[in-house]
User: What shape does this take?
Amino acid sequence: MSLGKLTRIVLLVVVTLIIQSTIGLDVRIAGAHPDLMLLLPIVFGIAGGPEDGALVGFLAGMAADLLLPTPLGLSALVDCLVGFAVGASTGTLTLEIWWIPPFIGVAGSVVGVLAYAVLGAVLGDPQFLRVDLVAIVAVVAVTNGVLANAAARAARWALGPTSSDHDRLSFAGRKKW
Assistant: This one.
């Protein structure tokens, strides 16, 4: 991984963390707030594959864990697993279809929130399963679905151009005879 790519990824994680910890926490719907840090590994899994999804999931999860009163590493573990799973399951999908990132954003968010609650309960804090989990899942899934296309564009920027992008752009520039 190049230094430029890693710098753009870290910058995007930091900016998302700032937005999450300022604006994101002020937005409350049914007692729940959006989880933008979970959206990052989902869109990086779509745009970059399982390795990039897992890497960004770990970075975003550790950054979020520093601000949460939950077991250190829980968000990192869940986000890493979600990013890897999304990347592994969407390897052949194209981002050119507008509804794919929102659909996967919703599905990945549902899985991520439920995995976070179950793993938190397994690690000894049963309050994770006592909260209004349905409202949390709904709020996180809907907001991440709405923001998925914009986040996917940011992920593609952070990952930089790939050989398939170059091939597609060079082919698009050719004239038809």
User: Anything to note?
Assistant: Helices lie at 3-26, 36-48, 50-65, 74-89, 100-122, 127-130, 133-159, 163-172. DSSP finds eight helices and no strands in the chain.
